[in-house]
Design a protein that fits this description.
The complex is a heterotrimer. By secondary structure, chain A is of the alpha+beta class. Chain A has five helices and five strands, in the order βββββααααα. Chain A folds into two domains: about 80 residues, no CATH class; about 80 residues, no CATH class. In chain A, helix 1 crosses helix 4 and helix 3 packs across helix 4. Chain C folds into two domains: about 300 residues, Electron Transport, Fmn-binding Protein, Chain A (Pnp Oxidase, Chain A, Roll), CATH 2.30.110; about 120 residues, UbiD C-terminal domain-like (3-Layer(aba) Sandwich). In chain C, the strands form five sheets. In chain C, strands 5, 6, 7, 8, 9, 10, 11, 14 and 17 form a nine-stranded antiparallel β-sheet that branches. Chain C has a five-stranded mixed β-sheet with strand order 19-20-21-23-22, sandwiched between helices. In chain C, strands 1-2-3-18 form a four-stranded mixed β-sheet. In chain C, helix 6 packs across helix 7. Chain C is globular and about 70 Å long. Classes of the chains: A alpha+beta, B alpha+beta, C alpha+beta.
Chain lengths: ~180, ~475, ~500
């Protein structure tokens, strides 16, 4: 009987995760952000993942049912490796931590590569509004980020506080 | 073959017959009571009477197909035809076809006349007078005439006017067969198979086929009367002669078969009335919703259309055909395998050619059950595309017989609604229905049934009507 | 005795032997829905699931509590509003229209007195997933709340705007809402709040009292609030209470209130879901995000849900019952108020919102065209696609009478209007458009337009009302009941009170 036949296998109760084909990255095995559903709890969340058709291409593969079709009645079985979960505000805290740690040992020079921006910023300095182009850029950028991306700044602030408050933990982490 | 009285006992045994005592009816016209029972999907009714024959209503009808229900509109008829009332609709259609003109029959069998008692007059029968009637009415009658070539049956109905006169309507084709011998026997309370045959012959315009050449002759034992062979098990036989071939009385009443072929009035004189010892005859509240004559006409038409359309192209794509009495036979529903794009147009047109009753057809997929009229009446709006799947023909089609409009015969449009899936669509385009079977895997269904049943052991109110 | 809360309503069901409890564990994952579907299709008791898996809130699930009895789907609402049970459709509509003519302003309660604030969670305490939201059909996109009221701001009324939009649960403080442009609240979000980058405060009210649930389904004139009409329905004020985290007011006796805001410029997946057409419908669409700020609830909240998709064909569920019992009388009154001499506007029994039957006389040439297109361009624009017009002497509540009218009176040549055109908007939940035709529109209607049509099934010679025949019919009905036939299907008998256990 062709009409409305459900292609999803009856054993799908053992599914681990579910996502839609339209969410899949173009390439397998590359790290990507994906909205996925926990098949058992039906919780839906975003995570950093790697996807592959075969389980042996991933380190810790879980089953991933990929649904497609106008009514999502067609599905295929892929595999997913969950790297990190992204919290509600869309911030990858683990990434932030890693970057913050790396930043301790790298230069903090940011090159905008923009002649126009250099001219405008220098103008503001010459006009007495800022002490330096770096200060101008710092203030303007943070103002803007605070308006547009408060969650990111908050998350970073939390990461920083974490780092400052726990030198022992940091020391241990550095040993790894 | 099941005689009528035995059939009623069968309904009673199935708890599908309510018996009303003579005093319970009071002065309420029986056709009103019959009509209310039909509207409410109630039981068939037997009216026990002190004077005259007992009556029965609703025996050829059934529950309202637009409500959830335990039985089908054709369940009683199936029982009367010797079938399982819960059997398939198609088996009913095929059985009905088998009663009609057949390639060869084994020839009629004969038995003694059950109606052995002479009745003084036709008035003594005490036939019922309806709410809008001036005279006692005869409905669901079977007329029989004989010529040198055989016996012919057809439906007949009318009124008893005065002591011994009938004013009736019967197919013109039957009246035309009267050839010198002007005797017509009217049989009341015939076996369901025989009445079904009369309706089938009328609906297919085969009144001129002698019953000796019909499948019914293999099934129903017969007995000769002055008006031809009638079933030996008939409850009441009224032998009449034609008093006037062109009487001038007017009557608006039409039994539903009259929309299928030309009918004619006749005035008849009663010659003799014979009956069984405790006769019981059916009547139909003609003109009221779900009346028996409407159901009989609908199922006879469905049977013949189903047969014709599946023997037309060398293949049998059609699952079933239904003319719901709920739509007064003005709409035909057909379930089919849509073989290719455009097949639905062919099917609609051939059905319009085969029957002049309706000008509206609904086409549904083959997996729709004939018991699921509710689904059809939802799908025409949500599954058929309102711009593309409601197809109106040119306004040059002949007018249909059943509707009230264009009764002057002006041409107009016909409509078919394609509520089947487009065969060109990929499977994945087809939206799955929300049903118990498709929305839940087997383990969940089993757990749910168990949980529900433990709280409703065998209780009729807990009956699950949708279980396939 | 009117019901002032969902709990009162459940008590009413208990008194009528119309509620059945399941104490054993039943899973929210399809099982509760499956049992409810069986209850729905057997016209059985409403199931209450006491034990639905570990939740911190000791919540119970109630399956399709508003599904009405088959023969008179409005009966329970009638009782909820203090009317008698056993009314015919016409009598019920008359009584409700009467109530709607006298709206009653709500009362604002002090928070301490509001049962919906027995328990309050805010901030990090908020956990949507601690409630037993059902997974209703296999292959739905997620768990759903679909029998609730969305309260949203409306600058033109004192009490905001109440409407219903299904909500897919994502995570502890996130959900997505099916906001289809064309409806009032989504319009406000898409065309006012979002362009300003401003979050729109909303509250999802689950398990409100029957009067609130009914008025949520009604179309109310602009400038008026559903809250006042809810009061009219039960003939006394509805109690409201201020939200904890925004300026909205919500029904005080509700089982569960989810406060939050709809974020601008954010989207989450929503769907697929088996919706009111009776079919699974996908694919998932990107829909606005409901970020939850607070959840308040009664102790041991009873969470109602609807097995959507079962209100078509012979089926009946809460949403189809709400259409018949609430939207119908409201539409009748609304059309009359708009100047149309309508006898009754009744949803067609075999679809959930798509088709309506209007009983009226053709008082002037073109009136049917005018009425149909008036509705198609206003409150019916999204979900109503067809009208069937019948004479005022035809009982619009009797589907057989309506089908007969179509079959015998509607001439395919002249009485079927606006079929075949392709210029009207179509809700993308439909099943007869291809994916290309629906397009990838994230909001609003399908890319490809379709038809909105109407059928004139009135007669050139309408039958006259016949009091004598009706009196005979009533006597015949009584005769049959006296002889033992169930009184359920008879509509001409004298109204009687239902007692507990009075079922044949």
């Amino acid at each position: 009987m062709r009409h409305g036949t459900h292609d999803r296998s009856e054993e799908a109760t053992l599914d681990h995760y579910i996502t839609a084909e339209e969410h899949l990255p173009d390439e397998e095995c590359t790290e990507t952000t994906l909205q996925i559903t926990d098949a058992e709890t039906k919780r839906i969340f975003e995570a950093r993942v790697r996807i592959a058709r075969e389980p042996d291409e991933l380190t810790d593969p879980q089953r991933l049912t990929v649904v497609t079709g106008p009514h999502e009645t067609v599905s295929k079985e892929w595999y997913v490796e969950l790297l990190d979960e992204i919290d509600a505000a869309g911030i990858n805290e683990d990434l932030l931590r890693r970057l913050a740690r790396e930043q301790e040992t790298t230069s903090n020079i940011v090159n905008t590569r923009s002649d126009d921006l250099k001219v405008v910023l220098t103008y503001l300095v010459e006009a007495g509004q800022y002490e330096s182009t770096a200060e101008a850029l710092r203030e303007l950028a943070f103002e803007r980020l605070a308006e547009d991306r408060p969650a990111l700044l908050e998350a970073y602030d939390a990461v920083r506080t974490e780092f400052e408050a726990d030198p022992l933990r940091r020391a241990l982490m550095d040993q790894e | 073959m099941i005689p009528f009285a035995q059939y009623l006992r069968g309904l009673d045994g199935d708890d599908d017959l309510l018996t009303l005592a003579a005093d319970e009816l009071a002065d309420i016209p029986p056709d009103i009571v019959a009509a209310e029972a039909l509207r409410a999907s109630g039981p068939a009714i037997r009216y026990d009477r002190a004077d005259g024959v007992d009556l029965a209503s609703g025996v050829f009808s059934g529950p309202d197909g637009m409500q959830r229900r335990d039985a089908q509109p054709w369940s009683r008829l199936a029982l009367g035809l010797g079938l399982d009332p819960d059997g398939s609709f198609v088996s009913v259609l095929e059985t009905i076809m088998g009663l009609g003109p057949a390639g060869q029959t084994d020839g009629p069998t004969y038995d003694t006349q059950a109606a052995s008692r002479t009745v003084d007059s036709v008035q003594a029968l005490g036939l019922p007078q309806g709410a809008d009637d001036v005279w006692p009415a005869l409905t669901l009658g079977m007329a029989s005439i004989a010529t040198a070539d055989g016996t012919y049956w057809a439906p007949i109905h009318g009124f008893i006017v005065g002591d011994e006169t009938f004013r009736v309507r019967t197919p013109a084709a039957l009246a035309a067969l009267l050839d010198g011998n002007e005797t017509i026997s009217i049989a009341l309370g015939v076996p369901p198979a025989a009445l079904m045959t009369a309706y089938l012959l009328a609906v297919t315009d085969h009144v001129a086929v002698p019953i000796q050449a019909c499948g019914v002759a293999d099934d129903v034992p017969l007995v000769p009367t002055n008006g031809g062979l009638v079933p030996s098990a008939t409850e009441v036989v009224i032998e009449t002669t034609v008093a006037d071939h062109q009487p001038d009385f007017q009557s608006d009443r039409r039994e539903a078969w009259e929309y299928c072929l030309e009918s004619t009035p006749l005035a008849l004189s009663v010659e003799r009335v014979i009956a069984t010892d405790e006769p019981v005859v059916p009547f139909s509240p003609v003109g009221r919703p779900l009346a028996d004559d409407l159901q009989l006409t609908g199922v006879a038409t469905a049977a013949t259309l189903y047969h014709r359309v599946n023997n037309y192209w060398g293949i049998s794509p059609v699952e079933w055909v239904l003319l719901p009495a709920e739509a007064e036979l003005g709409i035909c529903v057909v379930a089919t395998d849509v073989l290719y794009a455009g097949f639905e147009w062919q099917l609609a047109n051939i059905l319009f050619t085969f029957s002049s009753l309706f000008d509206t057809i609904i086409i549904v997929d083959e997996d729709v059950a004939p018991t699921d009229l509710g689904r059809v009446l939802g799908d025409i709006w949500v599954k058929a595309h309102p711009s593309r799947d409601w197809i109106f023909s040119d306004a040059s089609a002949p007018a249909a017989q059943r509707p009230r409009y264009r009764q002057d015969g002006q041409t107009g449009s016909r409509l078919y609604v394609n509520a089947a899936w487009d065969p060109r669509w990929e499977d994945s385009y087809i939206a799955p229905r929300v049903t118990f079977e498709t929305s839940f895997p087997p383990a969940v269904r089993e757990a749910a049934r168990t949980a529900w049943r433990t709280r409703h052991d065998g209780d009729a109110a807990g009956g699950d009507h949708d279980r396939q | 005795m009117a019901a002032d809360s969902f709990r009162d309503y459940l008590q009413l069901l208990v008194a009528d032997d119309a509620l059945v409890s399941f104490d054993e564990p039943v899973s929210w994952d399809l099982e509760a829905s499956a049992i409810t579907m069986l209850a729905n299709r057997t016209d059985g008791e409403v199931p209450l699931f006491e034990s639905v898996g570990a939740t911190d809130s000791d919540a119970a699930l109630v399956g399709d509590p508003y599904r009405g009895p088959r023969s008179r789907p409005w009966d329970r609402f009638a009782q909820s509003f203090g009317l008698s049970a056993g009314l015919s459709g016409a009598a019920y509509y008359d009584a409700i229209i009467d109530r709607l003519r006298s709206p009653c302003e709500p009362r604002l309660l002090e928070p301490e007195r509001a049962p919906c604030k027995d328990v309050v969670h805010t901030g990090a305490d908020v956990d949507l997933l601690s409630f037993p939201w059902p997974y209703v059909h296999r292959s739905d996109g997620g768990r759903y709340s679909n029998l609730h009221t969305i309260v949203a701001p409306d600058p033109e009324t004192e009490w905001g705007r109440w409407s219903s939009h299904r909500m897919m649960i994502h995570d502890d403080a996130l959900a997505s809402l099916l906001f289809l442009a064309g409806e009032q609240v989504p319009n406000r979000y898409y065309y006012e709040y979002e362009p300003r980058g401003e979050p729109m405060p909303v509250a999802a009210v689950v398990g409100a009292e029957p009067a609130v649930q009914c008025s949520t389904e009604m179309w109310i004139p602009t400038g008026r609030s559903e809250a006042a009409f809810a009061g009219g329905l039960k003939d006394r004020p509805v109690d409201l209470v201020a939200c904890e985290t925004n300026d909205l007011s919500v029904p005080a006796t509700a089982e569960l209130v989810i406060e939050g805001h709809v974020l601008p410029n954010e989207r989450l997946d929503e769907g697929p879901f088996g919706d009111y057409f009776g079919y699974m419908n996908g694919p998932r669409r990107s829909m606005p995000v409901f970020a939850v700020d607070a959840i308040t609830h009664r102790a041991e909240p009873r969470v109602p849900f609807c097995v959507e998709g079962t209100g078509v064909g012979y089926g009946q569920n809460s949403s189809s019952t709400l259409q018949t019992a609430a939207a119908g009388p409201d539409a009748t009154l609304g059309l009359q108020a708009a100047g149309f001499d309508v006898d009754a506007a009744v949803p067609w029994r075999f679809t959930s919102r798509t088709v309506w039957v209007i009983a009226m006389d053709r008082s002037y040439p073109g009136v049917l065209h005018e009425l149909a297109n008036f509705v198609f361009t206003t409150w019916g624009m999204l979900h109503i696609d067809f009208f069937v017009f019948v004479d005022s002497t035809v009982d619009a509540h009797d589907p057989r009478a309506v089908l007969t009218a179509i079959a015998l009176n509607a001439d395919p040549d002249t009485d079927f209007h606006q079929f075949g055109v392709e210029r009207m908007p179509k809700v993308p939940l439909n099943i007869y458009q291809t994916p290309d035709e629906k397009g990838s529109a994230d909001v609003g209607t399908s890319k490809a337009k379709t038809a909105k049509a109407y059928i004139d099934a009135t007669s050139d010679r309408p039958l006259e009302d016949d009091a004598e025949t009706e009196s005979l019919r009533a006597r015949a009905q009584q005769l049959l009941v006296d002889a033992g036939v169930s009184p359920e299907p008879f509509e001409l008998l004298e109204q009687r009170q239902y007692g507990g256990g009075d079922r044949r």
